Amino acid sequence: MSLAIKSSHPLHPNLETILQKIPIELKERMNRRFLPDDTPIDCPNEKAFIRIHKQVIKALQVLQRTETQWNLLVEKIFSLEDVMKNLNSRDRMFKHTFETPRNKLTRFFYNSTIEWYWRCFFYGYCKKTLAIMAGILSVAVVWSEVTFFNKDPPLSIFAIIVIISKQNYDYLAIEILSTVVILYLCYCAYSTVLKIKLLNLYYLAPHHQTNEYSLIFSGMMLSRLTPPLCLNFLGLIHMDSHIIKVQVLETHYTQVRQSKRYGELDFSKSIGEYFTDYGPYGCNCYNF
């Protein structure tokens, strides 16, 4: 295009707009390339400029994202190699392959000795402890999901804890349980859903490398999953009369849900009772 469009051409400002987006090192690399003799130098139209402009923007985004991910991967490799080298250190002082400058406050609270104990000793045990806690929570969530429909006797672990706390007027335990369980459900759901690469177009990239379309798509998924997750937790602790078939003092959230979500499905017992209870809570969350 630069060969076909001269400075006097009316489309030359459009060409300059596209060329200004290209980094200098890429321009120099392009200038060193030898074009074949049969390179077409036909004058492109405005639609061709629009098409190539979109392609340039997308290619630059992919290039920047790939370079950032490569640099992060290299940093992770060196970090793991440093941990392996310092595991058998006798002086118990963490030594980096490439030293990074730190301020005085960081050097005081996170010196080489503290870093060695954290990265070479406590870090592994902390991850193992979190893995065990996550496994216990996963078993409790799965068991409660399977048995949350049984009201008498209650089989849901979370419902039993809430009932005992309610009898003892221990509202702090209910708040802690609600916070921990909802956070864990959100972590399990979002860490899985937001890692799905839809046609390699919509996915989250670390260090501010996510484009605007992926951010909008992820925000849409986040807003659609949050109400069903909260509703799911209310069903686990037996505060949803539509599931346990017993009139209880419901929250306003379940009352709004009952009028908005199940209004179209209550006419069929096979669909309204079983599918909406055991199907994903996100299936009908669009009615919110």
Record the SSE blueprint.
Elements: H1 12-20, H2 24-31, H3 46-86, H4 104-109, H5 112-147, H6 157-167, H7 171-193, H8 212-236, H9 241-244, H10 252-260, H11 269-278
Summarize, please.
It contains 11 helices and no strands. With 288 residues, it is mostly helical. It has 2 domains: 75 residues, no CATH class; 140 residues, no CATH class.
How would you state the average pLDDT, rounded?
80
What overall form do the CA principal axes indicate?
flat
Whole-angstrom Rg: 29 Å
- The span between the termini is 51 Å
Q: How many domains in all?
A: 2
Sheet bearing the most strands, described?
Answer: none
Helix run count: 11
Q: Beta fraction of the residues?
A: under 5%
Percent in helix: 55-70%
Kindly name the structural category.
Answer: mainly alpha
Task: Provide a descriptive summary of the structure in words.
This protein has two domains: 75 residues, no CATH class; 140 residues, no CATH class. The longest helix is centred in the first third of the chain and has 41 residues. Helix 6 packs antiparallel against helix 7 and helix 7 runs antiparallel to helix 8. Helices cover 63% and strands 0% of the residues. It starts with 11 loop residues before the first helix and ends in a 10-residue tail after the last helix. The chain is built from eleven helices and no strands. The chain has 288 residues and is mostly helical. It holds the Pfam family LMBR1. Keywords: Membrane, Transmembrane, Transmembrane helix. Its main location: membrane.
